[in-house]
Amino acid sequence: MAKPMREIHGLGVSDLNDALLTSTEPLLLRGLASSWPMVQAARSSESEADAYLRSFYRGATVGAMLGPPEANGRFFYNDDANGFNFYPVHAKLNNVLDEIAAKRDMAPAPTVYVGSTTVDTCLPGFREHNDLALGARDPLVSIWIGNRTRIAAHYDVPDNIAVVAAGRRRFTLFPPDQLQNLYIGPLDFTPAGQAISLVDFHQPDFERFPKFATALEHAQVAEMEAGDAIFIPSMWWHHVEGLATLNVLVNYWWRQSPDYMDTPTNALMMAFLTLRDLPPEQRKAWQEIFRHYIFEADQQTAAHIPEQARHVLAPLDDEGARMLRAQILKKMNR
Predict the structure, then answer these.
(1) Is residue 259 part of a domain?
(2) Which residues, 6 or more positions from 162, have their beta carbon under 8 angstroms from its beta carbon?
(3) Which parts of the sequence belong to the JmjC domain (predicted)?
(4) C-alpha pair distances (Å), 115 with each of 41, 49, 90
(5) CATH number at residue 116
(6) Which end of the chain is more exposed for a tag (fewer CB within 10 A), N or C?
């Protein structure tokens, strides 16, 4: 039911303009990183891709997740949802690559996955030959390495470009307004930091999750080969599958907000503490306050207050953010 994602062809690593990088819709960028030596090695063979990665490795330890064959690559909760169906380890990357290679011909195979590891720390020098030009943006650049894996649908606060450097990937994306149809699990007990959909995309249980059928009507899917990239706007839900026996992804995260701004997730968690369990009429009153001061704020919101007296209602800057954070911490620690 998912529709193909909009595709853009013919772009190179230096052709990413501001219009594209501020898109509010996902984009499949076919062949964006075709010039990367990593991609060229991967298109030759998995063995050459493996060897190319190892050529930059200098012994750093990485975090990895190991899952049993019966999980079929899906990193998820255990049956009681009080733990997970995998276990984390710290290992040398060369040992992880050895493990992936050793299990290449097994079906189903135990799942091996290195997630969100900073490229410059793990593979120094890699980005000198394999990188994207993102202008003045200073992204966090991470690498993800594994065999056949399934990462449950989740969102990220930053904007994101993800490059398939080796193997094949399938991304299934949903707009932010599909939250209620994705059946999200716990917010504060998660497999890897972000809340995830509880729906198994390979075997959706429509009796337990009937509204997921509606989510699929809004889904966009991208089938990707080595050299392809995907732009994922902030807050879009995305389910990610590694389809080959060796998959390597390099992604770039950045925010369109100033560095002094905190993550909105902290505001959500504070709202659980301060707002959710208020009586309905009080919640309604606070909903109006948030609408007025936050979600529909404009130049008229504080126009009746002398400019020098607006304090937190004035435009925020680095100094103002530090002062506000200190006030909040003082109140929290009372």
Answers:
(1) no
(2) 171, 229, 230, 232, 249, 250, 251, 252
(3) 112-269
(4) 21, 18, 12
(5) 2.60.120.650
(6) C
Residue 95 sits in the same domain as residue 238: yes
Give the count of domains, the chain.
Answer: 2
- In one-letter notation, the amino acid at residue 233 is P
pTM exceeds cut of 0.90? yes
Beta strands in 191-283 (DSSP E): 220-225, 229-232, 237-242, 247-254
Residue pair 109/67 in contact (Cβ under 8 Å)? The answer is: no
Instruction: Enter the tokens of residue 3.
Output: 């529709």
Please give the mean pLDDT across all residues of the chain. Answer: 96
How far, rounded to the nearest angstrom, does the alpha carbon of residue 90 sit from its chain's CA centroid?
22
Q: Which tokens is 90 given? A: 């710290």
Quick one: pLDDT band at residue 107, thresholds 50, 70, 90? Answer: confident
What SS3 class is residue 152? strand
